[in-house]
Design goal:
Shape: globular
Number of strands: 4
Largest sheet: 4 strands, mixed
Number of helices: 5
Strand order of the largest sheet: 2-1-3-4
Radius of gyration: 13 Å
Length: 102
């Protein structure tokens, strides 16, 4: 879907989320704690949210399709993939280009 492509190419870190999703919130807070401010796109606040969610499922985000995390325009995955990267120590290097100076 064009909106996914546009958002992920124009922003370093994008989290497709739903405002009621606690895992989406946890991933967003993790990124903030690591010094990055992701663009959080709430699907339940977007009139085309259902179509975007279907497109995310087609890209491989499922069970559930949110949070869907993109870093540098690439699909990283959902909470499990983000947390696995973090526990292996690989997430910081992906986020480094997008970290703000504190």
């Amino acid at each position: 879907m064009d909106k996914i492509q546009t958002l992920t190419s124009e922003n370093g870190i994008v989290v497709f989320s739903k405002s009621t999703c606690c895992l989406c919130y946890a991933v967003t807070i993790l990124f903030q704690e690591l010094g990055v401010e992701p663009l959080v796109h709430e699907l339940d606040h977007d009139p085309n949210g259902w179509e975007i969610e279907k497109a995310l499922v087609n890209l491989g985000c499922n069970s559930p399709p949110v949070p869907a995390v993109f870093i540098g325009g690439n699909l990283v995955g959902s909470t499990n993939e983000v947390m696995s990267l973090h526990l292996r120590g690989a997430l910081i290097s992906l986020l480094r280009p997008y970290q703000t100076l504190a």
